[in-house]
């Protein structure tokens, strides 16, 4: 009942909950977007509408106070905040450090993370991207030709339909393509052997439970820690081998590039740091890219008109006089309008990360424009609160986007439309150097699938390339349709992914 007692006007409203420690964990965990929307609109006690919280409110999540700021201004408040006031590492480190390892990303001061982001950025050059396109297509082709889940494709019968499990297939394709390109030759070669089990154990330690309670005497925790140690040792043994036998290693991959980098004070990266950065890239890219690819392919399977437009685009750009299709190139990929629209629209509707969090290091006032419903109130987020933004809420806001809940790539064709403007704000806004090169601050756009500001995703261009090339490689070879109704979102794992489902496929006639 203390929740009904009068509270200081400066505190954001507290979401009503029945069980003290648990708070709103169950409702938030089941459907975070529905929960945010309901809180913004109204709160209910025994079906009775009680309060309109507006865009800023606090809820209890397993004993922690979480203050949510919604809308474009809410996103700007969290993503554009000063890192001395709003720190990402305090919130993310319990999840990421046991998985990535020590001294990288959120297990080091923010300035060091910015340097590590710069190292990765200089490792991902356009020249490398040019080479990656062929490698990605090659991996997808090889997978279709050898994996038992594509038995019908391998039979060479263009009339028969087969079915493949969406989550499994796109997760496997993503790890194959990422390890072939980003992770390097040695990792790709070991992928089908012991590395796969180690990856599996590590991945099972990357869940909301492991985040909320970082250490428990359970097998998944023990396996996570053993897998991290094993994977780190494996990368470090590759590093030693490369250093001791330079004549055998002409590789021009991310590891080779990291081995040459120096921090500003002149010190090189230590072996375990290089190993842990590579693990971080693997883990940060895997679920985000695989769920984005899965959602994209599901929508393509659902919309035959867009599927045909994508195929026609391939024929138009890559068709050869004998009726075949030549290899995809990086430079031409960027000109494929339908493909670009399809990826952008999927990331609008299904950004894999639904909640972006920081820890308030001091009391921080919330701008009055955010503190609706009554604009004369100025809230203060107290020190120690987790502050949370949810860009997906703006990406689905019906006051911004027409027919907001519908997957409609055509909205991206209009150069003067809302989508194009949002994209422009995101990518061409104020440019700031956070220590890893100039990036667009872009924090006030209603379209932020890769986050914004100093923590903006470092894998954005790579992910675009990986997803786009995979779509081309698949659409050239397969016709697709849904096996059943379009799947709903599963919010229970770390990323928003589709609930288990299948896609039907058959071989394209002119493959
Ligand atoms: C950060 C989205 C792929 C590496 C982020 C953030 C978002 C995001 C929203 C910001 C998190 C925050 O502000 O708290 C995505 C999406 C992807 C994707 C939608 C694919 C479709 C990748 C890939 C890599 C990667 C492929 C690695 C190659 C990272 C890293 C960070 C990050 C290291 C942390 C940056 C920091 O805290 O400063 N990503 N990501 N991501 N992403 Fe991605």
Automatic annotation (TrEMBL):
A GO term, aspect molecular function: iron ion binding
Pfam families listed in its UniProt record: p450 (PF00067)
InterPro entries from the UniProt entry: CYP450_sterol_14alpha_dmase, Cyt_P450, Cyt_P450_CS, Cyt_P450_E_grp-IV, Cyt_P450_sf
GO biological process, one term: methylation
Keyword DNA damage: no
Major localization class: membrane
Gene3D superfamilies: Cytochrome P450
Lineage: superkingdom: Eukaryota
UniProt subcellular location: Membrane
Keyword annotations from UniProtKB, A to Z: Heme, Iron, Membrane, Metal-binding, Methyltransferase, Monooxygenase, Oxidoreductase, Transferase, Transmembrane, Transmembrane helix
Cofactor or coenzyme needed: heme
Keyword Transit peptide found: no
Similarity-based family: Belongs to the cytochrome P450 family.
Name of the featured protein: Sterol 14 alpha-demethylase
Species per Swiss-Prot/TrEMBL record: Polyporus arcularius HHB13444
């Amino acid at each position: 009942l203390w929740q009904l007692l009068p509270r200081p006007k400066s505190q954001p409203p507290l979401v009503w909950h029945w069980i003290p420690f648990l708070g709103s964990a169950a409702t938030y965990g089941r459907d975070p977007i529905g929960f945010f929307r309901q809180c913004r609109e109204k709160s209910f006690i025994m079906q009775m509408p009680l309060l309109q919280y507006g865009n800023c409110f606090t809820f209890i999540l397993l004993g922690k106070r979480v203050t949510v700021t919604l809308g474009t201004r809410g996103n700007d408040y969290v993503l554009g905040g000063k890192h001395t006031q709003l720190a990402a590492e305090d919130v993310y480190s319990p999840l990421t450090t046991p998985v990535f390892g020590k001294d990288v990303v959120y297990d080091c001061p923010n300035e060091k993370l910015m340097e590590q982001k710069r190292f990765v950025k200089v490792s991902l050059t356009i020249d490398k991207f040019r080479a990656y396109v062929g490698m990605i297509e090659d991996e997808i082709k090889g997978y279709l030709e050898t994996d038992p889940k594509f038995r019908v494709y391998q039979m060479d019968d263009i009339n028969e339909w087969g079915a493949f499990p969406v989550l499994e297939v796109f997760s496997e394709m993503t790890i194959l393509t990422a390890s072939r390109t980003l992770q390097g030759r040695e990792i790709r070669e070991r992928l089908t052997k012991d590395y796969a089990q180690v990856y599996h154990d590590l991945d099972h330690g990357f869940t909301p439970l492991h985040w909320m309670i970082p250490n428990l005497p359970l097998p998944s925790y023990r396996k996570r820690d053993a897998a991290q140690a094993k994977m780190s040792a494996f990368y470090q043994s590759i590093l030693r081998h490369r250093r001791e036998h330079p004549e055998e290693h002409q590789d021009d991959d991310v590891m080779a590039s990291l081995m040459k980098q120096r921090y500003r004070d002149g010190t090189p990266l230590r072996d375990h740091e290089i190993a842990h950065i590579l693990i971080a890239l693997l883990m940060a890219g895997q679920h985000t890219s695989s769920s984005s690819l899965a959602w994209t392919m599901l929508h393509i399977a659902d919309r035959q008109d867009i599927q045909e437009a994508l195929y026609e685009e391939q024929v138009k750009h890559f068709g050869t006089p004998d009726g075949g299709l030549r290899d995809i190139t990086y430079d031409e990929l960027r000109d494929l309008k339908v493909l670009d629209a399809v990826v952008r629209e999927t990331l609008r509707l299904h950004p894999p990360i639904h909640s972006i969090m920081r820890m308030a290091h001091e009391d921080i006032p919330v701008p009055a424009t955010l503190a609706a419903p009554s604009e004369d109130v100025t809230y203060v987020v107290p020190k120690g609160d987790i502050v949370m933004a949810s860009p997906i809420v703006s990406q689905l806001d019906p006051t911004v986007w027409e027919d907001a809940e519908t997957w409609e790539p055509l909205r991206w064709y209009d150069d003067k439309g809302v989508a194009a403007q949002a994209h422009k704000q995101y990518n061409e806004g104020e440019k700031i150097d956070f220590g890893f090169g100039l990036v667009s601050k872009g924090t006030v756009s209603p379209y932020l699938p890769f986050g914004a500001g100093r923590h903006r995703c470092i894998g954005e261009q790579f992910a675009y390339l990986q997803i786009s090339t995979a779509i081309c490689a698949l659409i050239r070879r397969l016709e697709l349709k849904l096996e059943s109704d379009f799947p709903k979102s599963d919010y229970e794992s770390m990323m928003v992914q589709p609930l288990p489902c299948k896609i039907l496929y058959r071989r394209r006639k002119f493959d």
